[in-house]
Input
Amino acid sequence: MAPPKKIYLSFVSGLVAFLSGLGVMVTELGIVRLASPIVGSSQPVWAITIASVLGAVALGNMLGGYLAKQDSLLRLVSFSLFLAAFLTILLPFLVSPLLLFLLSSLPFGFFWTLLGLAGLAFFSTFPLGLLSPLLIREHSSELIEVGPITGQVQALSTLGALFGTLGSTFITIPFFGTKITFFLSGSALFLSSLLIERNKKTKYLSFAFILSFLILLFFPPSFSSHPWGKRLDYIESPYGNWEVVEDSNEVRYLVAGDGSTIQSYYDPRGLQQGGPWPAMSASPLLAQCELNSPSRVYIIGVSGGSTLREIIQTFPLAQVEGCEIDPVALKLGKQYLHFPQERCSIEVSDGRIALSQTKGTFDAILVDAYQGVYIPFHLVTKEFLILVQKRLKPKGVFMINLLSAKNWELRGFSKKKNTSDEGPLVQACVQTAAEIFPYVYLWDLKNGLNTLLIGSFYPLSNDFLMTQALGLKKRNPSLGRYLANSFPHIRLAQTTPNALVLSDDRAPVAWLTHKLALHRLFSGKCDD
Output
């Protein structure tokens, strides 16, 4: 019996198979990274992206199998590589403008944004799905060769996907950025297409195309302005995009994501800028701490340090500890926003991990952490609140910043304004907190976008709160006036029958965030 024939892919075909798998994973991981400042990086966002990529590859495989009947297979391979390279390099310049347009211009823009993300993921990976059937057909002249060739193509493609996943996650995105990651992947696809393409004019056009993108990548147009004022800095981090903007009054803002979400601010005049920070800085007062008595506060989600700075300035003996998962936010806060350097200890860490490793108890534990428009699910579960309970003093308070459902049009969820319902997420958080704290309150802030949930072991009377606010006016008039006007909006929360109690096993934060908007989208009603 004759020995079995050894069948190998050519070097170029093996390289193409490898790069096709690499390109799919770079696009899948990178596009979520590009979109996360606008739509977040929650499980539904990942699911939509992965489903779109898998659907694109599957459809590409089907069409590639049909096209494999043609004679000019190498030309089809070269064209598929060229198209995939073109879309890969172009993608970083399309994602943010397109998604922001959909978010701000259409009714229920958030859902059109998710659809736009799915479309971008689909069309940018579809050409890569064509390659496997074409390569297998090109190297399988006999039936006996199909099995070995298929195994080699699939193995090299999977190996490329492995390198794309690990390389982009741990090397190129952290050290060089997302745009350069896409550029490197697209350039590799371009070069592999040139190894196959024999037409010199096509090669020259390809080189010119790569050069033009290279110039745009490393010498982008300079945008020193922002709708709110002058841009002082812009940095891309593994967790999002950050910019520092200064307005005409020399007020500085740390802006995240899509360019409209303020994470921290610094006003040299000492005025309150709204948002959740002044209210959260009043937490020692809710814990019955005197202005001149030692108080200990823990903050999860320090960002640029607005709440931290207000507490340090208002309570001269306060000690503040906390954490921030993104070191870039801390860096910009220290550089531009007068981040306090004394009486505070801040570490770069996930909030739940950091809190579990702390020692002693606190007068207040504050949570102001977001991934896009979503709170990290593990910071709202019953198990997390049990940890909080163990870290609070008997008179301590827990406070978490929630997005209110009363002004959803600010995030492109709805065109309805000033609705009366809290929204499913707030209801679930109240129901969960009521399992741990005997008293749960909601504090609606004036901007209509934020609602603070407060958990405590004792009742908060309106007279007590007003007395605390009036006492603060002598030391910090701006904050005292703000609290005197805001404290009346603190109300006892009502639990909702059949509302979900969030747990580590089941905490669908993203779905609860979407639920109210979905209900309005399909029913046209404002009640839930």
User: Anything to note?
Assistant: The first strand starts at residue 225 and ends at 226. The two ends are 75 Å apart (CA to CA).
